[in-house]
Design a protein that fits this description.
The protein contains 10 helices and 11 strands. By secondary structure, the protein is an alpha/beta fold. Among the domains are: 81 residues, Nitrogenase molybdenum iron protein domain (Rossmann fold), CATH 3.40.50.1980; 107 residues, 3-Layer(aba) Sandwich (Rossmann fold), CATH 3.40.50. The strands form 2 sheets. Strands 6, 7, 8, 9, 10 and 11 form a 6-stranded mixed β-sheet that branches. Strands 3-2-1-4-5 form a 5-stranded parallel β-sheet. Strand 1, helix 3 and strand 2 form a beta-alpha-beta unit. It is globular and about 55 Å long. The two termini are 26 Å apart. About 6% of the residues have low confidence.
């Protein structure tokens, strides 16, 4: 590829990323402009809740992108820190009910994934308002994003941003079509021993499908099936990715005679940030560089 072609691609994606910075950076200004356009009162809408608990990292990211960081009082140990006061009240699978109730939340946002029915029932018994959302696909992410925004009193903001996300996906699909003659076929490793991959029944699988890529294990009805190693070896793939934790240690880029590209798992949660990271990934792939240094 000539230097001019590489430069044009970088410029294209810097423009898109700058749009994201504007879109996520000044939420209050965005809200004010939106309301000014639709009414005579250019006032930032007050949020319906002031003490929100988020029980998933991607939900916390969504709250941040909607401009509701200051309203978050409780998070999981894997969430980004939305403000200095937010307290950890849960890990990946369990909730510290005593710590959560002590925060006196007026809204808890959670999903059914990894939620224990016993603890979910205990929260219902406490009669704290709860919002249950799902993220099993890109479509569900958009629906849940708007649902969260609507519950907070930010429906217009959430709907506009969801439309913006759709536009970004359309641009990424076009970019992919221009740079690969056919839809790239990929596999997404979740863990190596035992070998587990992401099928088409997952958010990350759905996200890649949105830009026209083909998952080698898309048709598997189990979200994260465990495979025999021979199944991966015999599947023809253009790319093999692996979702890794930042603290997982040294990464080996070869597995079962396939070159593996590491992707930070926290960057591909069902949140707006995943769109930024998949943009970055495509740029790296067209340049033949690695998106994650080890």
């Amino acid at each position: 590829m000539n230097k001019k072609g590489v430069f044009s691609k970088i410029v294209l994606f810097l423009v898109i990323i700058s749009l994201f910075s504007v879109f996520f950076g000044e939420n209050e200004a965005f809200c004010a402009k939106r309301r000014a356009k639709n009414s005579d009162k250019s006032v930032v809408p007050s949020l319906k809740y002031s003490r929100v608990v988020s029980l998933k990292p991607n939900i916390t990211q969504i709250l941040q992108s909607l401009g509701a960081s200051d309203q978050v009082v409780g998070i999981t140990k894997f969430c980004p820190k939305p403000n200095a006061q937010a307290e950890v009240v849960a890990d990946y699978n369990s909730i510290n009910l005593e710590a959560l109730l002590r925060l006196k939340p007026d809204l808890i946002i959670l999903s059914s994934e990894n939620s224990q029915s016993r603890q979910f029932h205990a929260l219902k018994q406490a009669k704290i308002p709860m919002l249950l959302v799902e993220f099993r696909s890109f479509s569900e992410f958009l629906q849940s994003y708007v649902k969260i925004g609507e519950e907070l009193g930010l429906k217009d903001v959430a709907e506009d941003k969801a439309a913006f996300f759709k536009g970004i996906i359309a641009q990424l699909r076009e970019f992919s079509q221009k740079n690969w003659s056919s839809s790239p076929r990929f596999a997404m490793i979740v863990q190596r021993h035992p070998l587990m991959v992401a099928s088409g029944q997952t958010y990350v699988g759905s996200l890649f499908a949105q830009i026209g890529w083909r998952n080698a294990f898309e048709s598997n009805q189990i979200p994260y099936p465990v495979l025999d190693e021979e199944e991966l070896i015999r599947e023809p793939t253009d790319f093999v990715f692996e979702l890794v934790h930042a603290e997982s240690g040294e990464f080996k880029a070869a597995f079962l005679n396939k070159k593996v590209i590491a992707l930070p798992i926290q960057s591909f949660l069902a949140s707006p940030q995943s769109l930024l990271y998949i943009q970055s990934l495509l740029v790296h792939l067209t340049q033949g560089t690695s998106p994650l240094e080890h």
